[in-house]
Each structure stands twice: as structure tokens, then as C-alpha cells.
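dumping this here so i dont lose it
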């Protein structure tokens, strides 16, 4: 008795609409289809189809058997795909998108290690100053910061990260240190322009209290590296990711501003289109990123910093 074979047979019969049409699709005689259907119904002890000389219609039990049977077949197919993909050799073109700064500093070295390990994969990396649409632009993997709201994609966290406010000690000595988010409006804030709708608005949270502060200053850019250099020169306060400024906080070249306030989430994810079966190259690359950034998913020194 082959249950999966019987289910697949019944799906064909139900889809065909008649025994003769099913026989034609299966390449057997109508009598053979009829005998197998009778044997299946006898084994189950129920009638699955009401049939006439011209057509067949599902009974209530037949509807249930069809729907549940299709689900089982799909699950078995996905299982086999997952197992076989684990043995497939990664090869072919892999298109990767990341932000300019993080892409240059962190993703490009990871890609270099990846192609040394998988020489049959050809990687095209595109760095942009704002996120690209992974579905519309045809990327295989994109690197994203913060929440991933698009239901058409799935994601895997590769590194912990948070957004922070910072300034050079010289700036704070000259202008004073903000004590509340509202104080930021009296400071020269260096703004990174990433999207028009959030331009110049910094959102901070302390417990249940949330403040959205419209900041301003004499310097703005779409390049994080330039903004960081201005901040190190003592020209203002910057909102920047931990991955980019952690080393300057450790050396004392920068100091965290309003450290008790939290900013929007900025954990780093590898995102890719939701599919039943990931290609071997995508699966291998995401696993590689997860391994490469493993040390950045562990908080160190008890202060929440990992970079």
C-alpha cells in the first residue's frame, strides 16, 4: 500500500473532472482508473467521488481527502527540497544589496571570504544610500537595519546593533551636554538624509515616554562617513549606528549623548524573498553571514555593546 501514491492519483482524478480525462492524463485505461478508485474507496471505507458516465463530482469526504492530501504532498515536496538543497553545490550569479558604509566596511570583506570558499558563485554587490526593493529589483539577498515589515520576504538576524547619539568631547565642552531630547533643538545636529519623510526627525524613547524631536543644524549629508568625520571634528551631535562609532566611543574620541534614551531598532538582518526552496547559493551565503558576524550577536562587557 502506497498512501502517497494513492493521494497523488486522487488529486489527478479530482482535477480532471472525469475518469476518462484522468485516464488520458495518467496514460492508462478508464477501466484501470475506475478499479484503482474503487480499491481506494474500499480501503478508506468511504465514497470519494460521485460519478456518472460523463463526469465525477467530489463528495464531502472527497473534498476533505483532496485538500488534506494536497497539503501532505506539498509538505513532502518541501521536505525533499530542503534535504536535497543541503547537498547542492552553490553556484551561479548572486546579487547582493547593502548600504554604502556597512557594505564597504563589513559586507565586502565577508563576500571576499565567501567566494574563496565557493568559487562557483559569482557575486554582484550593489551599494546604495537608501534601501532597494528586493522583490522589484531582483536581488537575492539584501542587508537591512531594524525591523523588516514586508511580508513577502523573510529575514535572519546576523548582528546585534543599536542607534546612538554621540558627539566629540570638545563640542560638548563648548556647547553643553543635552539633558533631555528637547535640548537637542538648541544644538547643532548633523543629519544624515536617508528618506524625506523622516528627514531631521529623531525619535527617542525612555520607558513608556516617547519624544519625536525635529532637529536642525548647519550640516547634512547622505554619506555616513562624512557625517562621522564632521562629528569627530567637533561640529555637532550625530545619530549613528553602533557598528560605525563603537571604536571611537572606546577611545574617547566620541561620547554618547542621552545614553538612557533608546532610538529605533537597528539590528542587522539578511533578507531574501520568501520561497519554498532557497537556492544553494542563497542558503550558503546567508549561513556564511550568520557565521561571519556571530561575535556581533553577543553583548560584551555588560554594557550592551558588541562592536
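and the seq i came up w/
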Amino acid at each position: 500500500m502506497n498512501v502517497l501514491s494513492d493521494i497523488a492519483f486522487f488529486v489527478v482524478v479530482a482535477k480532471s473532472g472525469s475518469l476518462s480525462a484522468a485516464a488520458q492524463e495518467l496514460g492508462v485505461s478508464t477501466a484501470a482508473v475506475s478499479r484503482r478508485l474503487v480499491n481506494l474507496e474500499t480501503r478508506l471505507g468511504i465514497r470519494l467521488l460521485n460519478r456518472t458516465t460523463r463526469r465525477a463530482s467530489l463528495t464531502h469526504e472527497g473534498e476533505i481527502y483532496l485538500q488534506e492530501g494536497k497539503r501532505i504532498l506539498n509538505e513532502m515536496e518541501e521536505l525533499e527540497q530542503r534535504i536535497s538543497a543541503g547537498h547542492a553545490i552553490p553556484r551561479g550569479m548572486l546579487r547582493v544589496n547593502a548600504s554604502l558604509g556597512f557594505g564597504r566596511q563589513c559586507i565586502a570583506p565577508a563576500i571576499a571570504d565567501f567566494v574563496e570558499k565557493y568559487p562557483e558563485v559569482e557575486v554582484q554587490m550593489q551599494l546604495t544610500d537608501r534601501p532597494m526593493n528586493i522583490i522589484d529589483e531582483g536581488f537575492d539577498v539584501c542587508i537591512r537595519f531594524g525591523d523588516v515589515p514586508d511580508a513577502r520576504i523573510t529575514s535572519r538576524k546576523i548582528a546585534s546593533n543599536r542607534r546612538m547619539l554621540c558627539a566629540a568631547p570638545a563640542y560638548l565642552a563648548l556647547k553643553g551636554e543635552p539633558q533631555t531630547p528637547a535640548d537637542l533643538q538648541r544644538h547643532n545636529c548633523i543629519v544624515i538624509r536617508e528618506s524625506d519623510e523622516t528627514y531631521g526627525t529623531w525619535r527617542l524613547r525612555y520607558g513608556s515616554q516617547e519624544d519625536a524631536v525635529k532637529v536642525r543644524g548647519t550640516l547634512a549629508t547622505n554619506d555616513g562617513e562624512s557625517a562621522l568625520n564632521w562629528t569627530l571634528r567637533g561640529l555637532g551631535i550625530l545619530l549613528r549606528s553602533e557598528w560605525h562609532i563603537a571604536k571611537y566611543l572606546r577611545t574617547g574620541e566620541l561620547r554618547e549623548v542621552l545614553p538612557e534614551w533608546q532610538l529605533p531598532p537597528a539590528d542587522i538582518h539578511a533578507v531574501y524573498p520568501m520561497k519554498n526552496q532557497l537556492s544553494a547559493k542563497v542558503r550558503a551565503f546567508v549561513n556564511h553571514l550568520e557565521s561571519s558576524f556571530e561575535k556581533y550577536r553577543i553583548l560584551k562587557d555588560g554594557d550592551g555593546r558588541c562592536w
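The CA atoms of residues 41 and 47 lie 6 Å apart.
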